[in-house]
């Protein structure tokens, strides 16, 4: 950015103008229906504050030109019916689900991958949402401090900020708190509350599986194979959402002793854990070598040691969309697939 001071002044003026005109018109951007066919969320002006990843986030009125920096945030805002108040999206990794296509089609894509400071500022946002804190760096969208200096509030998913959250809250509860906080900020409390309630009910249904699964030494163990890169497996560690999914359905993540989301391990380590079953994350749409479920199955079957595991030999393998193994509005679907798959594999009494 060659002239940050002048650009900051210009952005503030544009945002003030855009915010007034959008409020007067009842919204900005496209006017398509929400994903479920209901009209986009509308809200009356009122000041709201929430805490997001250790920072107080305040808006004088519901945002009218929000930018989502990643697919997770984009789909959350679409699920809340906020497409008419989105000035841009970025960093789409997989296809948008069919239920969001019409709403998504009217939103500008400011960057096909990670947005730069210039791309974000050109969209003249009055609010920015991200699923992970690492999208707010000086050479990406800009730091939260830099954007605050431009009077642009920023929001980060609570799931990515465990140290700033009350102890004992599960990843799913943190995800649901995102819906509720965004609902308050955008004046879409009813839709947000309904979404959180529906997904809490889905988690409760999946938890019924645990009451019918052997526990103690007989509790089934699982390895989540997320990616195979340069021939090496990436699996779910203790801090990733799959560990919580396992707990909910009564299984145990075999790599719970590794304090990472998706650590790289060796095939020999996978063999040593000798899981009762394996969950493959299908990332076919991402298109990198080793991403598809078929390639991962081939890697398991082709390894001289792993191929001898009972889980591989007896095809005790479940496939779920890989994108759903990271926290998002889609994650309860993967949880439901996991619970159903455990029944199919015979782990549920």
Descriptive overview:
The structure is a single chain. The chain has 349 residues and is α/β, with parallel strands linked by helices. It folds into two domains: 4-202, Nitrogenase molybdenum iron protein domain (Rossmann fold, 3-Layer(aba) Sandwich); 213-344, Nitrogenase molybdenum iron protein domain (Rossmann fold, 3-Layer(aba) Sandwich). Helices cover 36% and strands 15% of the residues. It is built from twelve helices and twelve strands. It has helices at 4-25, 71-79, 101-105, 117-122, 144-149, 171-186, 189-207, 241-249, 267-273, 293-302, 310-313, 331-344; strands spanning 48-52, 55-59, 66-68, 86-90, 109-111, 127-130, 154-156, 221-229, 232-235, 252-253, 277-282, 317-321. The protein has a five-stranded parallel sheet with strand order 5-4-3-6-7. Strands 8, 9, 10, 11 and 12 form a five-stranded mixed sheet that branches. Belongs to the bacterial solute-binding protein 8 family. This is ABC transporter substrate-binding protein. It comes from Streptomyces bambusae. Residues 65-349 form the Fe/B12 periplasmic-binding domain.
Largest sheet: 5 strands, parallel
Number of helical runs? Answer: 12
Computed Rg: 22 Å
Overall residue-averaged pLDDT value: 88
CATH fold name of the largest domain: Rossmann fold
What spatial form do the alpha-carbon principal axes imply? globular
Count of strand segments = 12
Content of β-strand: 15-25%
Q: How are the strands of the biggest sheet laid out side by side?
A: 5-4-3-6-7
Question: N-to-C SSE series?
Answer: HEEEHEHEHEHEHHEEHEHEHHEH
Secondary-structure class: alpha/beta
- Termini distance? 62 Å
Extract low-pLDDT stretches: 1-33
Q: Helix proportion of residues, in percent?
A: 25-40%
Question: Please, how many domains?
Answer: 2
CATH H level of the largest domain: which superfamily? Nitrogenase molybdenum iron protein domain
User: What's the level 1 CATH class of the largest domain?
Assistant: Alpha Beta
Q: Based on the coordinates given, report the CATH architecture of the largest domain.
A: 3-Layer(aba) Sandwich
């Amino acid at each position: 950015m060659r002239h940050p001071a002048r650009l900051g002044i210009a952005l503030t003026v544009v945002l003030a103008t855009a915010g007034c005109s959008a409020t007067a018109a009842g919204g900005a951007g496209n006017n398509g229906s929400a994903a479920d066919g209901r009209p986009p969320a509308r809200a009356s002006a009122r000041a709201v504050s929430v805490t997001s990843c250790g920072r107080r986030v305040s808006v004088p009125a519901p945002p009218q030109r929000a930018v989502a920096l990643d697919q997770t945030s984009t789909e959350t805002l679409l699920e809340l019916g906020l497409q008419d108040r989105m000035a841009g999206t970025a960093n789409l990794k997989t296809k948008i689900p069919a239920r969001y296509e019409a709403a998504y089609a009217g939103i500008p894509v400011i960057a096909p991958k990670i947005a730069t400071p210039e791309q974000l500022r050109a969209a003249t946002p009055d609010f920015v949402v991200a699923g992970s804190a690492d999208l707010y760096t000086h050479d990406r969208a800009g730091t939260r401090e830099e954007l605050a200096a431009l009077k642009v509030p920023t929001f980060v998913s609570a799931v990515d900020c465990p140290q700033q959250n009350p102890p004992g809250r599960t990843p799913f509860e943190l995800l649901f708190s995102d819906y509720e906080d965004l609902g308050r900020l955008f004046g879409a409390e009813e839709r947000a509350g309904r979404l959180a309630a529906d997904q809490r009910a889905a988690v409760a249904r999946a938890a019924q599986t645990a009451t019918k699964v052997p526990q103690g030494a007989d509790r089934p163990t699982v390895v989540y194979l997320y990616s195979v890169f340069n021939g090496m497996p990436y699996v779910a560690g203790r801090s990733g959402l799959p560990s919580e999914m396992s707990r909910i359905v009564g299984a145990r993540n075999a790599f719970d002793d590794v304090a990472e989301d998706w650590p790289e391990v060796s095939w020999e380590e996978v063999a040593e854990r000798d899981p009762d079953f394996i969950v493959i994350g299908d990332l076919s749409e991402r298109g990198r070598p080793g991403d598809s479920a078929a390639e991962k199955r081939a890697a398991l079957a082709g390894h001289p040691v792993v191929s001898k595991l009972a889980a591989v030999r007896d095809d005790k393998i479940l496939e779920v969309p890989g994108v759903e193994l990271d926290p998002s509005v889609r994650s309860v679907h993967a949880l439901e697939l996991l619970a159903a798959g455990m029944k199919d594999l015979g782990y549920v009494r």
